[in-house]
Structures are given as C-alpha cells and as structure tokens.
Amino acid sequence: MEEKIPMWVGVPDGGMTEKEKKNPFACKLGGRATYPEGELGEAARKAVEEKMTCDICKDKMYLLAQAYCPVEEYDRILYVYACNSSHCHEKKYYKPWRVWRYQQKMKDYEEEEEEEEEEDVEIMVGKAEPWTFPEIAFDTFEEPKTTGTEEEEIKKAESASKELSNEISEEDLDSIEKSGCANLADEVIAKFQAKLMKCPNQVLRWGYGGKPLWMSTSDVPESIPRCSCGKPRIFELQIIPTIVYVLKCEQHLKPTTGVTDEGLDFGTACIYTCSEGCESEGIFEEYCHIQPPPRK
Question: Which of 4, 187, 279, 280 shows its CA 20 to 30 Å from the CA of 91?
Fold first, then answer.
C-alpha cells in the first residue's frame, strides 16, 4: 500500500517584528526576500534579482511567499514570485511566475538568549513598500484530519461554500464566485472546497512528494519538466487563491499599471522541485504549474 504523504497547511499569522523580517528562515507572505548570510546567500540574492522580472510585461515581480522547507540534511528556502498584473495572467498564465529553491547544508544554530522576555502582543501588519505586498508571517501545521467520509466532506462544501473563511468578506466571496472558483457543479472543485473547509484560512499547502489539490479537471499537467540536473521533479508546494484576498493584491498594484488592471489572478499554483535536491548547495530555479480559475 502506497504511503500517504502528510500535507501541511500555511495560515496567516499577523505582522512581523523587525527581527523576524531579517530572518531568512522565517516563513512569510509578501515583503522583500531575505537570504542567509555568507557568500552562498549573497550569490543567491544576485541570481534571483537578475531574473525576477515578468516574461510578459518585463516589470519586476512581487515576492508572494518565502517558505522555509527543510528536507533531510538540507536547509531549504522556496522563493515564490508572481507579477501583480491581471493582464499578464490573462495572456499566458504560466509566464508571470518564477520560483527558486535555495539550499545549504544544515548548521547548528545557537539561539540567542533574550535578556528580557518578549511580551506576547499582536504585531500589526505594516504598510507595503512599492513593488511589494504587505509582509505577513504564516504558521504551518499538519492538515486537520477528515471528520467524515470524502463524500460527506464534498456535500458540506456544496451546502456551505460561502463559509470558506471568516477572514474573507462577502465581497471577496462574490469575486471568487464570479471567477468560477465556487462553481461546485464540478466534483473536482467540490473536493477542492471540501479540503479548504477543513482549514478555511489556508493560503498554501506543503508536502514534499505529495499530491496537489486541483480545482478543476482542465490544465492538469500530464508530465513535469525534469530538473536542470537531470533528475525528475516532484510536487512540493501549492499556493491557494485565498492568498489574493489576504494580501489585498488589487490594493498594491504596480506603479506602471493601467486603470483596468485588477492585480494577481490565478486558480492555483503548484510548485515542483528536484526529487534529489540536486545533491548540492546553491540556488536553483524550479517549475511552477499554474491552473487558471475555471470560468463559467
């Protein structure tokens, strides 16, 4: 019997302290990318900054997520970039995305002793800088177990599709419905909604070697390009469209955008990385498959 890979979900966890913003191993949405200190980290920063432009409009892309994803003996960070222009996503939905994997051998990090205990206070999300989304921490935990059968979960999704998240407004839900994302006539979409309902605030899903959660039967890849090292790639990370509403992408458009631009628009983004980790340290570009939102 095939062993099932556990899935971990990422949920928004409020603003970040200045110390957290500078920590390259802190998981976050938006803001600017941070890299480990040293020659390897500096080389990675330069490599990403040279290529973090949209293949369509040629403008800078926004950091969507920075996720610390250690595997075996490696510290690994995934940097996910996307263009914040609906026009680019409408033309060729896979071109306005790029993903890099930073990798280094694990080290023993000695935690600094705090002279004073930090107060447990809520950190407000700060104002976004130009060409960035607001910087928001996200927490990860294993996906909650299903309480009933798969069929029961789908029925719950069909009867309560407007309860995707307490954090999302009715206007946001209306927008999702208009794009076709809440069309539950499709069983695949119903299953997608059922999974979301188990953790309504999730913005991403992680499972190295697991399976993505497709939101429709169209635009599902038959094969995935191999890594530049020649090894096959496997699924690792998925970005859920709820991230658009968490980051309020339409409120942080590019300075060069037109009046009809609505910002980032996608169905779901599935990231595939090297199954062998390239067996080396460095920065590596990975493959991102985009499934556009199903249209009515």
Answer: 187
Kindly give the pairing relationship between strand 97-105 and strand 74-82: antiparallel
Query: What is the pLDDT at residue 151?
Result: 53
* Chain-centre distance for alpha carbon 170: 23
> Do 263 and 85 contact (CB within 8 A), yes or no?
yes
Q: How far is CA 222 from CA 210, 217, 219, in A?
A: 16, 12, 9
Q: What is the mean pLDDT of the chain?
A: 83
Beta bridge partners of 173: none
Distance between alpha carbon 217 and the CA centroid of its chain, in Å?
Answer: 21
Lowest mean pLDDT among 16-20, 49-53, 156-160, 230-234: 156-160
Q: What is the pTM assigned to this prediction?
A: 0.83
Q: What distance in Å separates the CA atoms of residue 136 and residue 90, rounded to the nearest whole number? A: 27
The encoded tokens of residue 44 equal: 């990675």
What is the C-alpha separation between 56 and 161, in angstroms, rounded?
34
